[in-house]
Amino acid sequence: MSELRYIRLGFGAESVEYQEAWQEQRRVHAARFADEIPDTCLLLEHPPVYTAGRRTADSERPLDGTPVVDVDRGGRITWHGPGQLVGYPILKLPRPVDVVAHVRRLEEALIRTAAEFGLETSRVEGRSGVWVLGDPLAERPAVGGLSLDLDPRVADEEFDPRLNGPEYAPSNAGQRREDRKLAAIGIRVAKGVTMHGFSFNVNPDNTWFDRIVPCGIRDAGVTSLAYELGRDITVEEVVPVVERHLRDVLDHAEPKPREIERIERESERASA
Known about the structure:
By secondary structure, this protein is α/β, with parallel strands linked by helices. The chain has helices at 18-33, 99-116, 152-155, 173-176, 225-229, 235-252, 266-271; strands spanning 5-10, 40-44, 49-52, 68-70, 77-80, 84-90, 122-124, 127-132, 180-190, 193-201, 221-222. It is 26% helix and 22% strand. Strands 1, 2, 6, 7, 8, 9, 10 and 11 form an 8-stranded mixed sheet that branches. The protein has a 3-stranded mixed sheet with strand order 4-3-5, with no helix packed on it. α2 packs across α6 (235-252). The radius of gyration is 20 Å and the shape is globular. The model is unreliable at 262-272 (pLDDT under 50).
């Protein structure tokens, strides 16, 4: 990879509207594809906005008709807003592209960032992003007075957590001692260059997530660095730490083309 540069687009009162940032991503993406600029990471905050990836289901969107921006990244629906650090690494990857390896590198940088602030995080198999792991099932409080093995969020296909109050709200996953997502990742790779990226919950109002099914996950929730550590932390404090760890991870990574298994045909083997 080329040397990584950072562009801080705007935070706080200068937060950047989602559509404006998306247009800037496209401009930077085109320049990176043409080798006019080095690998670039845009860092910013957004005003409150819901964005939906290509796999988002109607049953995961806000029930009250709140507007949602449909985007061309992977993943499902999420929220961006004040108190959340958003990063859009626009990087040229070797072909054939290994998307999973790229996601793992982003996760690693954010795991290291959380650790520097004193919070242990992890990955969850089959679920991208950075997670605070919950207690074992047997040690968690019952949800809605029910045994967890009868949790309607996973046992009842018609159950809708958006309609069932704080007992099932994603923002209360910490109180329920469930797995909860600290950072979400959703990307797109076009012409070998990445777009979109990560959102890291520093100190947002996580009740925004209660109006949707975040990332399409019903049996876990969301959290923030400030909530888990029990103290106030600002996005401004986190930005330089994320920059340092992302640069370190990418500088020491050796991105290689995804290996493609080549299977010989029977006729080819027979004629050898």
